[in-house]
Amino acid sequence: MDIIAETYQVHTADERTQLDAFLRTYRRALNEALDGVTEEEARTRLVPSKTTLLGLVKHAAYVEQVWFVETVSGTPRAELGLPPAVDASFDLEPGDTVAGVQAYHRRVCDASEAAVASLPLDTVLVGHPRIEQVTLRWVLLHVIRELAQHTGHAEILREQLFAARGSAR
């Protein structure tokens, strides 16, 4: 199925179905932004920040864990093996590879989906260290917004990378 098609399939569905479809769409789009790039390209910094294609997908896995593990279960970031600062979630380790980060991201997304599957949208979550209470609805909307933003970043980086190799799409 086309990466965006799922969201059009559910345009008359209930709110939860629509939110889940948009979340899956952006998760998939960001993960697939690494398809067709070399290991070197995936690590290439084209902007002054730490942003790279590989770093974006690694950061997205961090975001998933912060909102769908820490916030839902109350398990602190340190216990999850996550850096305390968001900026560090873009850091790449020497062993990070395209295939490895994509697989890690998919596993984290699957766990996120399972963690909230049975929770109603109005469920109040209290595990985030800086937000006293937040509903699952707000978390879903926030993560969709963040993933949409980063998917846009990834598309621009891919365009630059492919242009640099002379095969702009």
Sum this structure up briefly:
The protein is mainly α. 60% of the residues lie in helices and 2% in strands.
Overview of this protein structure:
The structure is a single chain. This protein has one domain: dinb family like domain (Four Helix Bundle (Hemerythrin (Met), subunit A), Up-down Bundle). Helix content is 60%, strand content 2%. It is mainly alpha-helical and 169 residues long. It has 7 helices and 2 strands. α2 runs parallel beside α7, α4 runs parallel beside α6 and α4 packs antiparallel against α7.
List the helices and strands and how they pair.
Elements: H1 5-9, H2 15-32, H3 39-43, H4 53-73, H5 77-80, H6 98-116, E1 124-125, E2 134-135, H7 136-164
Antiparallel strand pairs: 1-2
Helix pairs in contact: 2-6, 2-7, 4-6, 4-7
Our estimate of the beta-strand percent is: under 5%
Assembly type: single chain
Q: Radius of gyration, rounded?
A: 16 Å
Overall number of domains? 1
CATH homologous superfamily annotation = dinb family like domain
**Largest sheet features:** 2 strands, antiparallel
* Helix/strand structural class: mainly alpha
Alpha carbon gap, first and last residue = 20 Å
Q: How many β strands by DSSP?
A: 2
Write out the strand line-up for the largest beta sheet, numbering strands in chain order. Answer: 1-2
Number of helices: 7
- Give the overall shape: globular
CATH architecture annotation: Up-down Bundle
Low-confidence stretches: none
What is the helix content? 55-70%
Query: In CATH terms, what is the fold-level topology?
Result: Four Helix Bundle (Hemerythrin (Met), subunit A)
Q: Name the average pLDDT.
A: 92
Q: Which CATH class?
A: Mainly Alpha
Q: Would you list the SSEs in sequence order as H and E?
A: HHHHHHEEH
